[in-house]
Every structure is written in structure tokens, then in C-alpha cells.
Write a structure and sequence with these properties.
three-stranded antiparallel sheet; single chain; 4 domains; mainly alpha
């Protein structure tokens, strides 16, 4: 649990009316609590994790976005806060994941709670313990402040016993909510309570009879035999919609966001929470990510983008920036969005210091860095780095890239510009895997060749250290000169990109030439002119 750090009166006042979505969400929580500290002593934010698989980019997005709302709440109020990362590790394993070893062994344990299945990696006491450890390592890596909760520990310790009695006391009311939402075949065997078989250890999905709600006794059929069984202290778990509602009420969850695909589930769980004497938490329903074809991302299809892939080609801050933007709108998530996300993050970060407070609170970087935004601006764009590396071709190494940067940036070194050092590494990887295979320079047309010769002549008259703005002015003037026949200025820039860089899009040419060097740029022009037959 954290207690809100002191917040200036000016910031708190501005936060009251900020239209940034974390503040809008936080104000919903504050209204829910009536501006007073709840009986439990804190406002509780929750995010859930299904440990049948390893943490992924969706896990990061949900915890990050929830943390942003939590920090916004702390700017609005002095009420202490807590973020619970809840692992549903008592779920029965329904199918063997494709990306783990020892699949035959796992198949022998299908249906058992994830904490009762051996770790296929051979490192932890169970499969769930392994994946829970990966989750905590994952969250710690990004500096999240959270309280980890295990579903198995909550059930087996008896922490949920009173809540389970409450479920049994309201068993029929819960059935009345759930049965109309189910197909006839499913409704025939549905039960809110899933007993753990004393014979096989499997989480059973069978009809049950409530014998005594207060003692937790139920009856059901297990392998042809009628069993009377106590559901307390880990003797059963709940169907997940009922489990979700029970958890909201038992823990007193005030805020939890979830994906659009769970909208109907949220409605049912909200009704069940009300039956149990509580209420659904506040929350944002976010849109799902799409692949580059506009199709929903699916782990089974493998059409998504992993966290590791993003961090291979882009910065952590750019990923947070992408997660922040428009959470209620569907967005494509693929390799191609990374460079733009990096440069847009840097643009917003560069604007932050000069903005009025209300604009700062609406700037994504305020929420990415919780108001403590780094001041050092990136001296070159990621797009420019990619163009530099692309032109260098096989000669592109970190040392050579820094050599060029040294001609353009005073004091350029990895030590002086650590964030840039990371992006140099990212750019080399991105170019190697995605850009270099697609680059193809074309020969210039007759009018384009004339313009390139004029550019070469003017570059020849400049000193080596000519500023980017002066070079850009020359490029601009040539493109506007009617003598060279460009209908629009963008036609000239497109010609430069295609003939010199081998791409359809590119950087501000004045900046590129200053970075790559005048002599090297003149060699590019010579190479392009040599392609003319």
C-alpha cells in the first residue's frame, strides 16, 4: 500500500478538471468513495492474470494503464492506495500450451489446479508457481508497485471462506442470473461452485446440491459415486464469473479495467456482486489490439507482437506511450508501428517542459513518468537513425553509427546520451530484420537527375559543418524551382528518398545530410546518377 505523496494545490486543482483519461477514471473512484477513506483503509485497484501462459504485452498494458489511473487518483486525493495483481492459479488446466516443454506430462494433469501440476520447466513446485514467478519478475522489471495475490492461497488459507458461504447462501439467486445466459447443454450441468475432486484432484464441472451453506457442505457425483464435500479451505473454487464477483466483494475492489471481449462477463459478474451484498468496481473497458490486417490478435494464431519483440526494436517508454493512447479505440499492434511510436513519444516529451500545467496533465508523458519527465531531449529522431543505418548498409555497427553522430551532436557518446544508445541498438536490429531486406534504390528520372546534380553542386560549396537548416533550405529551394518540373514539393522529397535511400518515406533531408556528412551524401548522389542507363 502506498500513501499519496504531497501534491501541490495547483496540480490537484488542475487534475480535478483534466480531460486526460486516467484523471477521468480516477474521479470515478473518488466519487465512489465519497471523498472519504473506505473502511478497509485504502482504495483498491486490481488487475488479473491467468497463469496458464507466460506474461505478455497485454499483461503489461493492463497493469500499466491501471497504475496510471492509480497515480492519477493519488494526485486527486490523500486516500492511501493499493494495487493487487491477482493470479487465477487455482483454475484447472484446460489445454496444454504450445510453448512449454514436457507436454505429455502436462496432458496427464489436465483439469487439475495449476498449482497442483508439476512445473514443466523443472524449476518450481508447480506450473503456476513458475508462471507466477515470471509474472512477478515481469512486473518488477518495469518497476510496478503491487501486492501479489494467489487464488490458491486465498482459497486454501480460508481467506475466502466467508465469501464462499455467502455464495452458497445465495446459490439460487446466482443460478437465476447465470442460467439465462447459457446454452441448454451448458445450463444442464452448470454450477457456480467447482468442487476439487477428493479422488482425482481435478476441478470438476458438475451439478452440485447445497447441503449446508454455513458449514460449506455440498453434494455431487464423482466417478459415479455421490460425494458429500466441504468447499471451504480449498475444497472448491468458483466458476470464473462468480469468482470474479466474489473477489470484488471479498477484497473490496474499487477499480478494475478489462477488455471489450469481457463486456458481457462484466455485466453478469456485476449482477452477482450485487447479490453478494457488494457492487461492481469502477473500470474502463478497453478495446482489443489488431494485427496489421485488422484482425483480432490471438495467441493461438500467433499474429500478435510480443513484449520482447517491441523492446528489441523500440524503447520501453514508446511501448508505454502506445499503451496510453486512446485505450477505448482499436489499434493495430505490429512491428511497423514501433518507429512512429518512438518518435511520437519523443515529440510529446520535448513539448512537455514548455507547456502550461493543464496541457502537461493531458500530455501522455506525464502519465508515463508520473510527472517526473526526463529533461534530456533526444538529439535525433528514431526515423533519422533508421535512415542513417539503412544507408550505411553492411558497414552499420554501433561504433560507426556513433562516429556519424559525433559529427552532428556535440559530445555524442553512449555515456552522455544513454537513451540514444538504446535506440541505436534498436535501430540496428530493426534495420537488420525489417528495413535492409526491403531497400531498393531506383534510377532517377531525367528531371530528378538534373535536380540531384544541382543539389550536388550546392553541397560541394558548403563547409563540412554546414548546419542542417542551411542544407534544408537548399533542398527546399531546388524542389520549388519550376525548372526541375516537380508538380509538388513532396514529389521532390519522394524522389530523394527513393533514389538515395531506397525507401518511399524518409527524414528531413537537411538533418540527414548534416548527420551523414556532406561528402558521404554526395557519394549517394553519384551512386544514384550512376544507375541511369
Amino acid at each position: 500500500m502506498t500513501v499519496s505523496a504531497p501534491v501541490s494545490a495547483e496540480l490537484r486543482e488542475a487534475a480535478q478538471t483534466s480531460k486526460a483519461w486516467p484523471f477521468e477514471e480516477a474521479r470515478k473512484v473518488l466519487k465512489r468513495l465519497g471523498n472519504g477513506t473506505p473502511e478497509k483503509g485504502y482504495a483498491l485497484f486490481e488487475t488479473g492474470y491467468g497463469p496458464s501462459g507466460l506474461p505478455h504485452i497485454g499483461t503489461f498494458n493492463e497493469v500499466l494503464r491501471t497504475t496510471m489511473v492509480r497515480r492519477a487518483f493519488e494526485a486527486l486525493s490523500d486516500i492511501p492506495t493499493k494495487l493487487v495483481a491477482f493470479s487465477d492459479d487455482m483454475d484447472g488446466l484446460r489445454k496444454v500450451p504450445d510453448n512449454v516443454p514436457n507436454q505429455a506430462m502436462l496432458a496427464e494433469h489436465l483439469g487439475k489446479p495449476l498449482t497442483a501440476i508439476p512445473d514443466p520447466f523443472g524449476k518450481f513446485e508447480s506450473f503456476a508457481h513458475h508462471n507466477n514467478a515470471m509474472l512477478r519478475e515481469f512486473l518488477d522489471r518495469f518497476g510496478f508497485d503491487y501486492d501479489f495475490r494467489s487464488s490458491t492461497e486465498q482459497y486454501t488459507s480460508g481467506d475466502f471462506d466467508d465469501a464462499l458461504r455467502n455464495v452458497l447462501h445465495n446459490y439460487q439467486k446466482i443460478m437465476d442470473i447465470m442460467l439465462p445466459t447459457l446454452r441448454a447443454e451448458r445450463a444442464a450441468t452448470y454450477s457456480p461452485v467447482l468442487p476439487v475432486s477428493p479422488k482425482s484432484g481435478v476441478v470438476l464441472q458438475v451439478p452440485v446440491e447445497v447441503l449446508d451453506a454455513e458449514s460449506g457442505m455440498i453434494a455431487f457425483e464423482d466417478e459415479g459415486e455421490r460425494i458429500e464435500h466441504c468447499i471451504l479451505k480449498g475444497g472448491a473454487k468458483l466458476q470464473w464469473k462468480v469468482d470474479w464477483a466474489m473477489r470484488w466483494v471479498a477484497l473490496g475492489v474499487d477499480y478494475e479495467m478489462y477488455g471489450k471481449d469481457l463486456t458481457d462477463s462484466g455485466v453478469q459478474s456485476g449482477k452477482i456482486a450485487q447479490v453478494l451484498g457488494g457492487r461492481k468496481p469502477e473500470g474502463l473497458i478497453y478495446e482489443m489490439f489488431l494485427d496489421e490486417k485488422g484482425e483480432k490478435i490471438s495467441k493461438s494464431k500467433g499474429n500478435g507482437l510480443s513484449l520482447e519483440e517491441w523492446l528489441t526494436y523500440g524503447s520501453e517508454e514508446s511501448l508505454a506511450f502506445y499503451a496510453y493512447r486512446e485505450p477505448k479505440s482499436a489499434k493495430q499492434l505490429h512491428i511497423g508501428v514501433i518507429p512512429r511510436a518512438v518518435d511520437e513519444y519523443e515529440q510529446f516529451r520535448g513539448n512537455y517542459a514548455g507547456q502550461a500545467l493543464d496541457k502537461k496533465l493531458g500530455n501522455p508523458v506525464h502519465h508515463i513518468h508520473n510527472g517526473d519527465v526526463p529533461e534530456q531531449a533526444l538529439p535525433v529522431s528514431y526515423g533519422l537513425l533508421l535512415n542513417l543505418v539503412g544507408v550505411m548498409g553492411a558497414e552499420a555497427t554501433e561504433d560507426r553509427v556513433w562516429g556519424y553522430l559525433g559529427n552532428y551532436i556535440e559530445g555524442a557518446s553512449p555515456d552522455n546520451y544513454p537513451q540514444l544508445a538504446g535506440l541505436v541498438h534498436n535501430a540496428l536490429a530493426y534495420n537488420r530484420d525489417f528495413v535492409a531486406p526491403t531497400l531498393k534504390r531506383r534510377a532517377p528520372e531525367e528531371n530528378e537527375a538534373a535536380a540531384l546534380r544541382e543539389l550536388d553542386a550546392q553541397l560541394a560549396s558548403l563547409p563540412d559543418n554546414a548546419p542542417a537548416e542551411e542544407i534544408q533550405g537548399i533542398v527546399y529551394a531546388i524542389g520549388k524551382d519550376p525548372h526541375y518540373g516537380f508538380e509538388q514539393l513532396r514529389d521532390w522529397f519522394k524522389a530523394l528518398y527513393q533514389t538515395l535511400l531506397g525507401a518511399d518515406q524518409g527524414p528531413r533531408m537537411g538533418s540527414f545530410i548534416a548527420l551523414y556528412g556532406i561528402e558521404n551524401s554526395r557519394k549517394l548522389i553519384a551512386d544514384a546518377l550512376a544507375l541511369i542507363k
